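<amino_acid_chain>
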Amino acid sequence: MRLRNYAIALSIIIALVLQIMPMPLTVDQFRPDWVLLVLSYWALAVPGRVSVGVAFLNGIILDVLMGTSLGVHSFALCLSIFVLSSNYQRLRNYSLWQQSAVIGILAALYHLVMFWLQHLQTDVLFLFTFLWPVVTTMLMWPWIFALLRKVRRQLRIT
C-alpha cells in the first residue's frame, strides 16, 4: 500500500539518476532521455496525476543537476508533456510501435527546443549528433512501457 503512493516519484527519481549517471564520451551522445520517457509513460497512463506541473518541477531539477540555465529543460519538458497529455486518449489506442514513433517525435521536439534555447543564450552550433538521443529514446520506449506498465498493474496505480 505504501509503495503504491511513491511508485511514480520513485520511478522519476531513478530516471533522474540515469540521466546524470557518468558514461564514456563515446556512449554518452547516445544516452536516451530517461526523464522524458518516464514522464511520458505516466502522462499516458495516469494523466490526472502526472502532467505539465510535474514536468515543470522535474525540468527545474534536471536544470540544476545538469548545470544548464534555469528553465531550459523545464520549458522543453513542459512543451513535450503538454503535447502528449493533450492527445493522450488518442495515443493510448495506438500500437506500441506507433507510440514509439510519437515518442520519437516528442523527443525530437524536446531536443530542438533545448537547442533553440541554448543557441539563444550561448550561440552553440547545431550538429546532427544532437539527435542521436532521439533514436535511442524511441528504441527504449517499448521496454520502458512494458516495465512501468508491469509496475503499475502490480501496484494497481490509478
